[in-house]
From TrEMBL:
This is Toxin.
Length: 80
């Protein structure tokens, strides 16, 4: 199960033109989990692709859910 903050969803829609709803589908179809250095939280991130462009989606596990924190395009993974 996936969850997210609706205000954050609106922010990433405006900033990056992507939504958590779209990313949920992409993550379910094809994604890998990558480690992210974050000293303050127990976070990892999904690496997924939307329209053939790599997207990083940090998340936390909360109970049985993946809490999506934010998302951004990341060209470092373009040729993965």
């Amino acid at each position: 199960m996936f969850e997210w903050d609706n205000k954050k969803n609106e922010e990433i829609k405006k900033r990056h033109g992507i939504s958590f709803e779209e990313l949920e589908v992409c993550i379910k179809i094809d994604s890998v989990i990558i480690e992210t250095p974050n000293e303050n939280r127990n976070q990892n991130a999904f690496l997924t692709f939307l329209n053939d462009y790599p997207i990083i989606v940090p998340f936390e596990i909360r109970g049985d859910n993946y809490r999506l924190i934010t998302a951004w395009p990341d060209r470092r993974y373009k040729d993965e």
